[in-house]
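FAQ: What does the model actually see?

It sees only this:
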Amino acid sequence: MPPGAIRPWAAILCGGAGKRLRKVLRGRPKPMAPVAGVPFLDFLIAHLLKYGIRDIVLCTGYKSGVIEKHYRRGIPGARIAISREEKPLGTAGALKHAAARIKSDPFFVLNGDSICAADLRRLLRFHLKKKALASVVLTKAAGRSDVGSVLTDRAGLVVKFSEKSGRCAYVNAGIYLLDKKVLAFIPKRRAFSLEYELFPKLKNCYGFKSRADLLDIGVPERYKTAQQVLNLKTPPGHPADLPLKQLAKYGQTKRGSHEISIRHHNDNAQDKKTGQHDP
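And it is asked to produce this:
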């Protein structure tokens, strides 16, 4: 890692009640939904580890104890901390609650019930080049109207953010890069939403367009699809090895030099291309 650079941190939003999946999951919180013998959350952690993002805060709520018990044993290469909310705080409120645990600026945020192949290195370059307060990964809608639609101008500036309210060419993929300054816009100790309340009000929020597909497990039908896409026979060895192999097949993870670092003072951190699309 270059001198003066720091590794980015990530927060994963794991606190949702997952009411539509309760009959399927039988007492598990949604991010712990089993896929190929491991929790879905392991796939998100594996994708972060690909980019050298090792410090991960799990923002938990509903059935937090299940998540805490599982990750107490650790994941090779990752340093996992838990930020447990005692009452539902929403997606933004959960980040405000976890703020003291997150040590990098900017920091990544991932929804705990979806996965997308976005190139996080390019996302970081894009974010720094645009001097954005927030960058939202966007993927093609593919006819879906049940996820947040986002409209940007030519420069990538978000001009309209409509969470689950109509059709649009691009939708919110549930991956964000946020400057810590945005935390000042989030009230303390009450429910507050990134999608409904924070992003629509930010004047310096950019959309990073990715060609990657979006997989989510929000309802039983899509959970079944995710299982079909990611399910392979469990190989021998530590369960944490599994998602890396799964994601390689899905086109999301290839072993190699992908690690990223934050260098605000270095122009090399900026992508010489437009930076608005994954390759």
